[in-house]
Amino acid sequence: RLLIIDFGSQVTQLIARRLRELNVYCEIHPYQKVTDASLKEFDPKAIIFSGGPDSVMREGSPRPPKAAYELGVPILGICYGQQVMMHDLGGRVEAGEHATAEFGRAYVTPSETRPDFLNGWFMDGTEKGVGKEQVWMSHGDHVAEIAPGFEVYGTSPGAPFAITADLARNFYAVQFHPEVHHTPNGATLYENFVRLAGFKGDWTMGAYREEMIQKIREQVGDSHVICGLSGGVDSSVTAILLHEAIGDQLTCVFVDHGLLRLNEAEEVVKMFRDNYNIKLIHADESDLFLGELEGVSDPEVKRKTIGKLFIDVFQKYASEIEDAEFLAQGTLYPDVIESVSFSGGPSVTIKSHHNVGGLPEKMGLKLVEPLRELFKDEVRALGHELGLPASFIGRHPFPGPGLAIRCPGEITRDKLEILRKADAVYIDQIRKHGLYDEIWQAFAAILPMRTVGVMGDGRTYDYALALRAVTSVDGMTADYYPFSHEFLGETSTRIINEVKGVNRVFYDCTSKPPGTIELE
Ligand code: XMP
């Protein structure tokens, strides 16, 4: 396995990502936690030093442990990682006013000799290959003098030591970021590096599953674990993995707040009981939630009411489970990164997101987070590995507050019923047209107004619906989906014919920003 020592770069997770794509197992450890002893115990086959925001010239700035250089394993240093390597091994780094800061696109040209590390680079169609490679730079300081034993193998106008290596020791150090999209050929460097380090690229999701099961057993021992199940992919995969690891030491709690989609509660509960035989409490608390929400129309009050009730209810059920010591959460890698780099920032609250953060401390529970090192698509792959049906794995995200935020204005049971039926028809249309997997998220919302229509020979005065569908990578920004007019016409007709109480359908063609994905 490979160890990535994280010096705090915003893109460290992308290094892990590139390595996973090469089927190499790696772990990211923050530099503060890597000591000579822990490094020897980890016994890496290769090490990568990530980038980072600090300056090696600053007293007390991050360093790898000395042992890293003495293990005799290949090392790749990136940006700050390069500077730290040069500094530690006898080179010189310049900071402050002497430094040429460089941000953005740059072009690297090769030197005469080309080590194996650069196989596939600088190819321009000729056998020798002297083409330039586009790279992404982002540094304030720069290396002024390379360490003894190192040679330069590539330069850019702002970085005379863009690519350096000590071939005898298998140490490689680059000033740019090969892991990002803007270094189009960057993956090749990672591939060359792991091949030089002797990795065969045979790590699989199956192997990860086994490893996680072992880790969960070690962490949990004989204790009992509670897992909140939402029916989403992350919490489902977490539950199934835990169940494989510890069987009946796991109890799942599925809180039904009465704001779920058509047949959703039954489907989720059935899937878990039938296929996995997991201990599952189906907490039907819809009367409580809908009761408290009566007359509430302000979006933030809705969100806060639901969030608070959710915690109360979860706590009530969880406290009935004897000897519970752990709470399992489906936290993903991007959540970990975001919460580290953005916590405490000055950003405004657009919406109070529904989450159960703070719950473990309140209840005196420890956390188990088996998905902490995975990206969303890797969670899906693990779900597949664990036998979750494909239809379940590919489901669109669904927000914690559920249909409440798709029902602007007051929430009533009548409106919810109309909304559920209309949403089901809409999603059925999308599936029938083979569009479901192209869309990040699609749903109907019921608008707080009635409009006049004519059906048959009669007047109608019914609700209007908004249909929403967006494409997105992470939900942070989104584009509305460009359905054809035929599709929209057909869907509108079907909804109005099949769902009593609706006589008008709008399509929401707002992107995010300026809109948000949900209506509230
Ligand atoms: P917005 O509406 O903020 O939504 O553009 C972005 C993504 O987040 C989902 N969402 C939530 N998910 N709890 C969640 O778990 C929430 O309170 C919540 N609010 C919005 C939304 O469905 C979209 O995928």
From TrEMBL:
EC number annotated for this UniProt entry: 6.3.5.2
InterPro entries, sorted: Class_I_gatase-like, GATASE, GMP_synth_C, GMP_synth_GATase, GMP_synthase, GMPS_ATP_PPase_dom, NAD/GMP_synthase, Rossmann-like_a/b/a_fold
Pfam families documented for this protein: GATase, GMP_synt_C, NAD_synthase
Pathway assigned in UniProt: Purine metabolism; GMP biosynthesis; GMP from XMP (L-Gln route): step 1/1
Alphabetically ordered keywords of this record: ATP-binding, Glutamine amidotransferase, GMP biosynthesis, Ligase, Nucleotide-binding, Purine biosynthesis
Gene: guaA
Active site: C79, H177, E179
Record's subunit section: Homodimer.
Reactions mediated catalytically: XMP + L-glutamine + ATP + H2O = GMP + L-glutamate + AMP + diphosphate + 2 H(+)
Ranges where the GMPS ATP-PPase domain occurs: 203-395
CDD domains listed in its UniProt record: GATase1_GMP_Synthase, GMP_synthase_C
Protein name listed in UniProt: GMP synthase [glutamine-hydrolyzing]
One function term, GO molecular function aspect: ATP binding
Purpose: Catalyzes the synthesis of GMP from XMP.
Domain of life: Bacteria
SUPFAM superfamilies associated with the record: Adenine nucleotide alpha hydrolases-like, Class I glutamine amidotransferase-like, GMP synthetase C-terminal dimerisation domain
Species in which this protein is naturally found: Celeribacter neptunius
EC class: ligase
Positions with a binding annotation for ATP: S230, G231, G232, V233, D234, S235, S236
Record GO cellular component, one term: cytosol
